[in-house]
Amino acid sequence: MNTILKHMLTGIDGETFDPARVIGYGAATAGVGVFLFNSVWMTLHAHAFDPQAYGLGFAGVCTGIMAVGVGVGVKAKTEPQA
Questions:
Q1: How many C-beta atoms surround the C-beta of residue 61 within 10 A?
Q2: How far apart are alpha carbons 82 and 24 in whole angstroms?
Q3: What is the three-class DSSP state of 11?
Q4: 82 belongs to a structural domain
Q5: Is residue 15 part of a domain?
Q6: pTM of the model
Q7: What residues are paired with 17 via a beta bridge?
Q8: What are phi and psi of 33, to 5 degrees?
Q9: What digits encode the pLDDT tens for the residues 11-33?
Q10: Torsion angle, alpha carbons of 32, 38, 43, 45, to 10
Q11: How many domains are there within the chain?
């Protein structure tokens, strides 16, 4: 697991941590976790599930994750080749 995380969070050289990846993956993970927790919390405590609100929220989370991916992809093209 440590090797996978290191490859995900480092630049092309495999040693230097990339701030865009660290912040991006962290924000995406936190966003998905909070969204899922809030969805379950509201369903269990309010005894109501609004599929339209869920769909809109999920689309927002997916858009944020896509933006992180695009940012990391664009930044990867500017890195020197190893």
A1: 16
A2: 23
A3: coil
A4: no
A5: yes
A6: 0.66
A7: 10
A8: -60, -45
A9: 778 888 888 788 888 888 888 88
A10: 160
A11: 1
